[in-house]
Amino acid sequence: MGTFERLRSDERDDRDRQFDHIVGNSPALESALAEVQRVAPTDSTVLVLGETGTGKELIAHAIHNLSARCGRPFVKLNCAAIPFDLLESELFGHEKGAFTGAVAQKIGRFEMADTGTLFLDEIGDLPLALQPKLLRVLQEQEFERLGSGRTHHINVRLVAATHRDLAQMVARNEFRSDLYYRLNVFPVVVPPLRERREDVRQLVLHFAELFARRMEKHIEQIPETTMDAFIAYPWPGNIRELQNLIERAVIRSDDGVLPNPLPPSQTNPIPTVALQGTLREHEVTLILETLRAAGGMIGGPRGAAARLGLKRTTLVSKMKRLGIYRPRYQRTGEFNEGSELTV
């Protein structure tokens, strides 16, 4: 699911973990992450809502990593990807001989996730026939494998996700109301990329660098018109679409210039803040703006490194390479290139 990265800070402690694999600091994203921070330390069930490609699985990972269950199993299952006749066995397991083809005992995802977190993606695709069994596990923390009368007791936190409107499904009798209310204890809404336009530049730079490194290419320039087109585009496929288009652009890049992979009808950008054309200048601008927003802090959960999705040491290395220096923080909050670096 969704595919953008924020790397873990190397100076965190158990109470101060960073969000893994999440990039961006737009108000819409920060609001969602604040909700994650609020609910993560509890054992409450979380329902992650958002369009396809927004990164709901990454939010589930963040909830797990910021909880006391971090370091214990994080097990995931896409309810839409498993055939109906196999889904019950995937969830609860089965004994040898429970049905035709059950040639050995199988451990289900709930049992695998014991003491940890189970992430059920596309929960709106869970068949009605299985919903009472899921409700029982959530309420009683117990289940039986298929073909067995033995009750297994577990300690599992559930995080579920869907792009569907479950309330509307309940109204149409397509989803059980009791299960819906049990799942909807604490909803977290992941914003679509069109509501996070402030993050597009950072995501473009990130994916351009990522794919250039994988393909052993060197991207030196992102034209201003290309970046403006990215910012203006509505991104119906969200982060997944952005990632795929940047990968395509890197494949087609020549002479270190990132081409515009958007269809011609989508290349008329809305006015944006003027950007310099080189990749270096994009990075310098982004790092300086993030340092100002972070009040001069590089490390820590709200520091510039976390906001940029980098390790502190990686950001310091980038700053040295780009000639960006952070003077000791002053009341003006000004940062520049060329003075002594202090970390």
Please give a structural write-up.
The chain is α/β, with parallel strands linked by helices. It folds into two domains: 27-190, P-loop containing nucleotide triphosphate hydrolases (Rossmann fold, 3-Layer(aba) Sandwich); 194-322, Helicase, Ruva Protein, domain 3, CATH 1.10.8.60. 38% of the residues lie in helices and 9% in strands. The chain contains 13 helices and seven strands. It has helices at residues 27-39, 56-65, 84-92, 109-112, 131-140, 166-171, 177-183, 200-214, 224-232, 238-252, 279-293, 304-308, 312-322, and strands at 46-49, 74-78, 117-121, 142-144, 151-153, 157-162, 186-189. A five-stranded parallel sheet has the order 2-3-6-1-7. A two-stranded antiparallel ribbon has the order 4-5. Strand 4 (142-144) and strand 5 form a beta hairpin. Helix 8 (200-214) packs across helix 10. It is elongated and about 65 Å long. It starts with 26 loop residues before the first helix and ends in a 21-residue tail after the last helix. The model is unreliable at 1-17, 268-277 and 327-343 (pLDDT under 50).
